[in-house]
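Hi there. Long-time user, first ticket. I'm pasting a complex I've been working with (about 316 residues overall). I'd like to know whether the download I got is complete or cut off, because the file seemed smaller than I expected. Thanks.
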Amino acid sequence: MQPVAPETDADIEHWLDGDQPKWDAVDFELPCSRCGYDLRMLTLPRCPECGLQFAWRDIFEARRRRRHEFLFEYCWRDRPIRSWLLTAFRGLRPRRFWERISIHEHVRKGPLLFFLVSAVPAFLLTMHAMAGLALLVFWLLDRTLSARATGYFGTYVSPLAVLAQYARAVATLPVIAGLNYVCLAGAVLLDVVAATALLASLRQTLGRCRVRPVQVLRVAAYATVPAVAVTAVAVFLCGVGAACLLAYGMPLGVALGNVLAFGLCVTIPGAYLGTGLRRYLQLPRPWLLGLTASAVAMLLTFTAVMFTIVLLAGGW
Ligand SMILES: [Zn+2]
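Hi, the file is complete. Here it is re-exported in full:
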């Protein structure tokens, strides 16, 4: 029988005697929020399948049909843009974010899938916004400093002009990259989907715990969107560092910037995933699980990008 969502406090009190369920009155399945095991008729509030400890009242109360304060999953019909922004923004501080979310809430797969895929425009828009802002700052600084320097040193090419060129190139990437820009968006999508799929497949081996796939999707969606935004900023700043070293005649800076950017593309999403796995799903080895999923997804994406570049160049 399908689980019933209580509508009122009276419904909950009908099923509870203090903090203990009245099993005679509960005539529906009561699946464990983490693994889906039917908890009916248990005497202790601990899932025998996955070990999740809980309070019976929390399980019944969280199933109540109610409006969530801000979460996209619940508010997308009424306030799609506002709830998307609030969810993504609050997700930037993952420890506090997961404290606001209950594992016992009803999970809605459709909005979560949409939110996960929206990580692609979130990454690209953050990158372009950063580049636009940096271009303005570099241009203003370059203009001010060049105007002052001209009087003393004559005309010269400022390193800030090189940085402004880099920022302009990133800001106008859709125009100058053409088809490669579509490949970049595809690479971000592949990375996001691969990390989620790996997380779902690794949860029993590394996490040593059965977890409902929809709960893995929830962690992946709410960790990935803020993680890609932070990653976009970090990768852009790596490029600024590399362009800076290049402007001062150190071409090795490009290689260093690439290596650092690759490392950040793995560790930032891995850390966000790990925080969700620890704080929300309470899994053992959360960091290992998050970083492994992130690293393998990144390597898969990198291989796919290299393969595509060679294919487009007519290498095969
Ligand atoms: Zn369980």
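A couple of notes from our side: The mean pLDDT is 86. The pocket of zinc ion is lined by residues 32, 34-35, 37, 47, 49-50, 52 (CB under 6 Å).
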